[in-house]
Design a protein that fits this description.
By secondary structure, this protein is an alpha/beta fold. 28% of the residues lie in helices and 26% in strands. The two termini are 34 Å apart. Bound molecules: ribose-5-phosphate. Ribose-5-phosphate binds next to strand 12 and helix 6.
């Protein structure tokens, strides 16, 4: 039985990102507990937890990236198993929260899938959610349980500061990301610029305008997600056309769908900096990519949560 700081604690890793889960467990100093995830002949998920969780503070680590529905369902079924096995707390660590971009009705008859996922997690038994850079902070209001929204900002800012770049400007790739970019700009001691982006259709990004001075500047585009790469590449092209020096693209979650890798490789972006909330297979790695680990940040956050200590100091 793992007793950690006086509590019975177990940490489980599901399928999406075992590498990050292992690094978090190593940081905390608790071995990962075992759980077997398998499939019935028809594809249904089966989960077997071969050790007791009764009365434990349990942490389950699972990002809900592609295949989104498989990873989500795995997590829900795991929570159901833990709840029925009398776990005292079910803390779900979802470094990347899939469906988060469907957080409002952008037009008539659209679902709010991020809220549906929040409801599913709570019904399945989550007592706390720990995530990182939720697409919109107000997603926290979709939950009636505690939710801790960690930020990658200190990790990305530290890496970018070490480059000692001068003439900097932090660029928000759209209106929605201004608050996030302003935080990075404050840490970097730089001004911000804003890309006036529109989406004429899903997955297509168009730059209408650049608000702010970028000529002769080193630009850091800061986004929560890089998915198809359309937004950052359109932004980088526009920045270059406006006379920018070097362009760096930073994000927390490298979703990297479809042709994102080639699109970024063939763009004027000098380097793409992201974190390991999503595990990237070898086939999605490329020379311009730098992946920084959030294991220490999440690991320390989990320790503080176990100890009933605050976590905001970790974001400073
Ligand atoms: C949108 O609001 C998000 O913050 C990202 O800008 C977007 O998801 C990136 O998607 P893509 O890489 O496909 O342009």
């Amino acid at each position: 039985m793992a007793i950690f700081h006086g509590s019975k604690v177990k940490i489980f890793a599901l399928s999406s990102n075992k590498k990050l889960a292992q690094a978090i467990a190593d940081y905390i100093g608790i071995p990962l507990s075992s759980c077997d995830v398998s499939r019935f002949a028809d594809g249904e998920i089966s989960i077997d937890i071969p050790e007791t969780v009764r009365g434990h503070k349990v942490f389950v680590i699972q990002s809900t990236n592609e295949p989104v529905n498989e990873h989500l369902m795995e997590l829900l079924i795991m929570m159901d198993a833990l709840k029925r096995a009398s776990a005292r707390e079910i803390n779900v660590v979802i470094p990347y929260y899939g469906y988060s971009r469907q957080d409002r009705k952008a037009k008539s008859r659209q679902p709010i899938s991020a809220k549906l996922v929040a409801d599913l997690l709570q019904v399945a038994g989550a007592t706390r959610v720990i995530s990182m850079d939720l697409h919109a902070a107000q997603l926290q209001g979709f939950f009636n349980i505690p939710i801790d929204n960690f930020r990658s900002l200190p990790i990305i800012a530290k890496y970018m500061k070490e480059k000692e770049l001068t003439d900097l400007v932090v660029v928000s790739p759209d209106h929605g990301g201004v608050a996030r970019s302003r935080m990075l700009a404050d840490v970097m001691g730089a001004p911000i610029a804003i890309i006036d982006k529109t989406r004429p259709e899903p997955n297509v990004a168009e730059v209408m305008n650049i608000i702010g001075r970028v000529r002769g500047k080193n630009c850091i585009i800061y986004d929560d997600i890089i998915d198809t790469g359309g937004s950052v590449v359109a932004a980088a092209n526009a920045l270059k056309e406006a006379g920018a020096k070097d362009v760096y693209a930073c994000c927390t979650h490298p979703v990297m769908s479809g042709d994102a890798m080639n699109r970024i490789t063939n763009s004027p972006i000098s380097e793409m900096v992201c974190t390991d909330t999503i595990l990237l297979p070898e086939s999605k790695r490329f020379p311009k990519l730098v992946q920084l680990s959030v294991a220490g940040l999440l690991g320390q956050g989990i320790i503080n949560i176990i100890d009933d200590q605050g976590i905001s100091s970790l974001f400073q």
